[in-house]
Amino acid sequence: MTFENSLSYAQGLDQIDPLRSLRVQFYFPQHNGRNAYYFCGNSLGLQPKGIKAALDYELEHWKTHAVEGHFRGEMPWMYYHKFLLNQSANLVGAKPEEVVVMNTLTVNLHLMMVSFYRPTKERFKIIMEGGAFPSDQYAIESQIRFHGFLPEDAIIEVSPREGEENLRTEDILSTIEKHGEETALVLFGGVNYYTGQFFDLEKITKKGHEVGAKVGFDLAHTAGNLPLQLHDWNVDFAVWCSYKYLNSAPGGPSGVFVHERHGDNRDLPRFAGWWGHDEEHRFLMKKGFVPMKGAAGWQLSNVQILSCAAHKVSLDMFEEVGMPALREKSLKLTGYLIYLIEKLNEKGGNFNIITPKTPEDRGAQLSILTGDDGKALFDYLTENGVITDWREPNVIRLAPVPMYNNFEDVWWFAEFLNRWLDK
What is the number of alpha carbons within 13 Å of residue 186 lying toward its C-beta? Predict the structure, then answer.
């Protein structure tokens, strides 16, 4: 696609954008009486306007029915997780019985490792990306210590080659091959939070299985960002949050995927809870845990209704639009942003995009390595109503989200960089 560097061109792209009507379904933070230029959906998505009505509905349901709300109405609380299944499954390329919404991200990561990290004296290592998000690092470290191993012995991190910012797929695969006989689990993020690199989940899963390891992914920066086919890729498990690209409120509930080959394996160790017990016999209050079929059998407690009601609003929007259409627009938005930044660099800018420029290796996020004055640039953007994200020592992260960002937003971001250069 051939781009042009002009406001009128960006506005023209917005006029022919088939998803342009989605933007008005969100609330934007305000700056000097107008919408801010919001590029922080990789940290917290904007609020869909429909969420207030959904919360009001459940509050009224609670007020009217109290405890009987579990069994009355169109969406009785007793079965609420089922009202999120089809949308969640379509979002990540799964069967409905392979997904469930419950808890929060790191809780679910621990629950999955209880089942899928089963180290032995011979096979105890976990292979992960170097520089993974801290919650992944801490969860993995603590699980390893819980099993009596030392992180320095059990954790194998794959890092970029010297002078490079991103991981090469061949290096990930060769590391799995090298440590294969000692590897119990391969656990990567789907998209690296710092660089925005999207990993080849299918190839990583295939190689992990070849060496006899289980393979799981933290999709916090991937779900709602990129199309996924977790079932077809044969992934063992995955977890994700709902408050980034899924726009489901801060601290929103987490999604879980467990492949169907594991879903009905009652011999698989797990931490059990009442809500994961066989639904038909749950209220008999008897001893002896009998899990529900599929991913639902990993539930611990009854559904967090208010947060899941907010989440349902967003899931319904994704279901209506579909990830293929969102991905198509996302690639155009990031492609246009890359074009504009490269034009600025031709002018003398020092904005090094460390996110892969190859479309298949990135999602909506671009990470820009700045010069020594990067923090001052970040502050300048903020003062002008451009909301991005700063990461030490000198990276600005931003994500033009196809649900609510448009091409004019992207043009204005580059224009503020241009004005910074002209200062």
Answer: 30
Closest CA to 213 of 170, 168, 239, 179: 179
For the 7-42+322-422 domain, the top CATH level (class) is: alpha beta
Give the strands of the sheet with 352-353, arranged side by side.
352-353, 366-369, 395-398, 389-391
Mean of pLDDT values over 390-403:
96
Cβ atoms within 10 Å of 12's Cβ, excluding its own: 14
Q: Is the pLDDT of residue 112 over 90?
A: yes
DSSP code, position 286: -
- pTM, whole model, 2 decimals? 0.97
- pLDDT grade, residue 423 (50/70/90)? confident
pLDDT-above-90 percentage for the chain:
97
- What does the longest C-alpha to C-alpha distance in the chain come to? 73
At the topology level of CATH, where does 54-321 sit?
Aspartate Aminotransferase; domain 2 (3.40.640)
pLDDT > 80? residue 1 = no
Q: What share of the chain is helix, strand, coil (3-state, %, to 5)?
A: 45, 15, 40
CA neighbor of 145 nearest in space, from 113, 106, 171: 113
Residues 6+ apart with CB under 8 A from 140: 113, 126, 128, 151, 155, 187
In whole angstroms, give the CA distance from residue 28 to residue 26.
6
**For the chain, how many helices (H) and strands (E)?**
13, 17
CA distance 187 to 63: 44
- Please, where in the chain does CATH 3.40.640.10 lie? 54-321
Question: Strand ranges (DSSP E) for 316-394?
Answer: 352-353, 366-369, 386-387, 389-391
Structure letter (DSSP) for residue 47: E
Distance CA 186, CA 172 (A): 10
What residue spans in the chain does CATH classification 3.90.1150.10 cover? 7-42+322-422
